[in-house]
């Protein structure tokens, strides 16, 4: 069996131990020769690697595990790059969320102005990662990108590195499907979805379980309970903000029950409600820093002192399982169907061909193959997608042209922003906060 060199770019992420555990759970199908972690923050990566190395030693003791801060040594002859970077870390995520909130607008990590701020920080380092891959890695190396905001990053990569082997993915639809298993009383692998949209902006149109359509059952449940009752939150999404998100699903379904929306649609369809629910002084970033981040670093400190740590300090969530499943289908040419982000190219006939859409694709050794051809979507969904797509395209224009005007238009087009005047106030505040990360935007 062939063995592979895998690089996790963003090795200092608290998700890394879970991704590695998921990866090694497939070691009989996807055998590694070496596992490398790469991060520009060597100290943070060193601490996370204390736990990551313990996972390797426990699950695959003979596997070579190495830590890198130098891109040449990290990417040399690699077969796969798993990218999960967060430029500016949680300090900047907190500002992404709190600056819009301070100006009476939704503050969220990947949606609205916060997501745009994150995107303008993420594009340059993502391009750098792709360039490292193409310079140092094997010619057939694939990058599976998990870095947010995935939709805007995918649009930027489409334009800036159009010939690169980058597959953009997101775990939110997968996470939703994992929760649906308790309602359907089935395993996750038994659910076959149909879905269309942009990343964090889409709808399930079908949910078959072992070939039987059951989406109406799911709609009825969500209309009454949301997704899901208080007793059924997993470790990854147990915080108060996620509980509100799942409950809000029922409001959307009771308004529009043709499809099951992605949870992130709350920011675009329930703006007033969500804004009132958000705490401008304590946002999701604070929850994560006080929760997952604090728990794992406490476990690391315990391990360095005693050699033991609480195994509940990290978990294998949808994040880790999905990226490994997609890589395994690429490696073994499994032709398995997953929801991934690809260029439209006629899959949805009434959207632009160059739109980066999230749809079901067969994952082959040569990459994703759309299962849709000339799909026609309804006017309502098409109109919402086109507005969001225009906002995202204007933002990438702003990055490429160093254009303040295009950035302002991007924010103005976004459905979370109430007016152009509000967009300008938010943009000016975000420029000041991101002066060490963003390209200069010239008027």
Architecture overview:
The chain is of the alpha/beta class. Among the domains are: 4-169, 3-Layer(aba) Sandwich (Rossmann fold), CATH 3.40.50.720; 173-278, Lactate dehydrogenase/glycoside hydrolase, family 4, C-terminal (L-2-Hydroxyisocaproate Dehydrogenase, Chain A, domain 2, Alpha-Beta Complex), CATH 3.90.110. Helices cover 49% and strands 16% of the residues. The chain is built from 16 helices and 13 strands. Strands 3-2-1-4-5-6 form a 6-stranded parallel β-sheet, sandwiched between helices. Strands 7, 8, 9 and 10 form a 4-stranded antiparallel β-sheet that branches. α15 packs across α16.
Overview features:
single chain; 443 residues; alpha/beta; Rossmann fold; L-2-Hydroxyisocaproate Dehydrogenase, Chain A, domain 2; six-stranded parallel beta sheet; four-stranded antiparallel beta sheet; 16 helices
Layout: helices, strands, pairs:
Elements lengths: L3 E6 L6 H9 L7 E7 L3 H18 L4 E5 L2 H5 L4 E4 L5 H14 L9 H25 L5 E4 L4 H11 L5 E3 L3 H13 L6 E8 L2 E9 L2 E2 L1 H11 L14 H16 L4 E2 L4 H4 L1 H7 L6 H23 L11 H15 L3 E8 L12 E9 L2 E4 L8 H23 L2 H10 L6 H14 L10
Parallel strand pairs: 1-2, 1-4, 2-3, 4-5, 5-6
Antiparallel strand pairs: 7-8, 8-9, 8-10, 11-12, 12-13
Helix pairs in contact: 1-2, 1-13, 2-12, 4-5, 4-12, 4-16, 5-6, 6-14, 8-9, 14-15, 15-16
Report how far apart the termini are: 57 Å
Mean pLDDT, to the nearest integer, reads 94
Fraction of residues in helices? Answer: 40-55%
Strand content: 15-25%
- By secondary-structure content and strand pairing, the structural class works out as alpha/beta
How many β-strand stretches? 13
Radius of gyration: 21 Å
Q: Quickly count the helices.
A: 16
Strand order of the largest sheet: 3-2-1-4-5-6
CATH superfamily of the domain at 4-169: NAD(P)-binding Rossmann-like Domain
Q: Mind describing the biggest β-sheet?
A: 6 strands, parallel
CATH architecture of the domain at 4-169, please? 3-Layer(aba) Sandwich
CATH C-level class of the domain at 4-169: Alpha Beta
H/E series, N to C? Answer: EHEHEHEHHEHEHEEEHHEHHHHEEEHHH
What name is given to the CATH topology of the domain at 4-169? Rossmann fold
Q: Note the overall shape.
A: globular
- Provide the low-confidence segments as ranges: 231-236
